[in-house]
C-alpha cells in the first residue's frame, strides 16, 4: 500500500511594487521594439544601395528585404494592447510570431550574402553585431506583447 500525502503550497503573493516594476520593464522592451520598427525602414533604404552593386540575385534579395522590413516594421508598431477582441489579438500575435521567424531567416541570409559579397571583393566581412541585436529585440517583442496582455503568466 502506498500513501500519497497532499502538500499544500501557500498562494504566491506578489508585492505591488514588483508588479509595477514588471509593467515598467515591459514598457521599456515594447518601446525598444517600436524604436526598432522605426529604424528598420531606414536601414532597408540604406540596404538597397548596398545591394545594387552586387549580382542580380543579391539585388533582388535587397529589394525583397527592403519590402519585408517595411512590412515587419508595421507589424511591430501595431498597438496590440489596444485590441479588444481576444481572437484578433491571438491572430495578430500569431502573425507577428510567424513574421519574426521569417525575419530571422532574412537576417541570416543577409549575413550570408554580406560574407559572399565581401569575400568576392577581397575584404574581411564585418561582424554581424547589428543583425544579432535586431534579431534579439524582435524576438523579445513576442513575450513582451504576451505578458502585457496576460501579466498573470509572468509568475
How would you describe what is shown here?
The structure is a single chain. This protein has helices spanning 16-51, 56-77, 86-121, 129-149. By secondary structure, the protein is mostly helical. Helix 1 runs antiparallel to helix 4. The chain is elongated.
Looking at this protein, list some descriptive labels:
mainly alpha, 74% helix, 155 residues
Tell me briefly what this model is:
This protein has helices at residues 16-51, 56-77, 86-121, 129-149.
Helicity range of the residues?
A: over 70%
Characterize the overall form.
elongated
| Largest sheet: number of strands, sense, barrel closure | none
Radius of gyration from the alpha-carbon trace, in angstroms: 21 Å
Task: Write down the domain tally.
Answer: 1
What letter string, H or E per element, gives the SSE order? HHHH
Report mean pLDDT, rounded to a whole number: 83
How many beta strands in the DSSP annotation? Answer: 0
Report the β-strand fraction as a percent range: under 5%
Count of alpha and pi helical runs: 4
How far apart lie the N and C ends? 37 Å
Describe the secondary structure blueprint for this structure.
Blueprint: H1 16-51, H2 56-77, H3 86-121, H4 129-149
Amino acid at each position: 500500500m502506498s500513501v500519497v500525502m497532499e502538500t499544500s503550497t501557500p498562494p504566491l503573493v506578489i508585492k505591488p511594487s514588483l508588479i509595477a516594476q514588471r509593467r515598467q520593464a515591459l514598457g521599456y522592451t515594447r518601446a525598444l521594439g517600436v524604436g526598432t520598427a522605426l529604424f528598420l525602414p531606414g536601414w532597408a533604404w540604406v540596404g538597397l544601395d548596398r545591394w545594387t552593386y552586387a549580382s542580380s540575385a543579391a539585388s533582388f534579395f535587397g529589394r525583397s528585404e527592403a519590402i519585408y522590413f517595411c512590412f515587419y516594421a508595421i507589424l511591430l508598431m501595431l498597438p496590440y494592447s489596444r485590441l479588444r477582441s481576444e481572437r484578433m489579438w491571438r491572430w495578430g500575435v500569431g502573425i507577428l510570431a510567424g513574421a519574426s521567424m521569417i525575419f530571422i531567416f532574412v537576417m541570416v541570409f543577409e549575413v550570408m550574402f554580406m560574407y559572399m559579397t565581401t569575400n568576392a571583393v577581397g575584404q574581411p566581412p564585418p561582424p554581424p553585431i547589428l543583425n544579432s541585436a535586431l534579431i534579439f529585440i524582435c524576438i523579445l517583442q513576442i513575450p513582451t506583447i504576451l505578458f502585457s496582455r496576460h501579466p498573470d503568466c509572468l509568475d
